[in-house]
Design brief:
The chain has 168 residues and is α+β, with helices and mostly antiparallel strands. It has one domain: endopeptidase fold (from Nostoc punctiforme). It contains six helices and six strands. The chain has a six-stranded antiparallel sheet with strand order 1-6-2-3-4-5. A hairpin with a 3-residue loop joins β2 and β3. α2 crosses α3. The radius of gyration is 15 Å and the shape is globular. The protein starts with a helix and ends with a strand.
Length: 168
Amino acid sequence: MNDYKSILVGIAEAEIGTRERGGNNRGERIVAYQKATWLDPDAWPWCAAFVCWCIQEWLKVPGAAESIGVSNIEKWRPQTPAAFDFLRWAAQKDLQVLSETAEVHAGDIIVFDFSHIGIVVEDALKSSQSIQTVEGNTNGKGARDSTSGDGVWLKKRARTLARNFIRL
């Protein structure tokens, strides 16, 4: 993993333990994540917003944007509140969209079949049965929906749940 990708992973990992406060899909940190998207903060599922926020913060690190050839951070960074929409964004930015069976690297984005998203935090070979991720709007059991997701968690997910991976 290059140094800049390890910084992205570190940003995501530093948020582990963040929890909703004051109601479902609410709280100061959740609003901060949601503000990284084009949608006004409110009580909506925020898994994609969490990934947008992590990338936004990562691109502020001196040299990170340059490491992937980005000159206009605000124009380039993802701002979508929808997990599956990350695939459209990646295609528009000419990023590699990898199949669910690809070898993955820490710092890749994982888009799940069940309209959920996270950041890969450990390399995984094609033969790996599981993927280690950090995800927002999930819970200790791994559920992802607007009523049971309660925070940012470190997860070990079955590879079979992956739809695609995006390499920055």
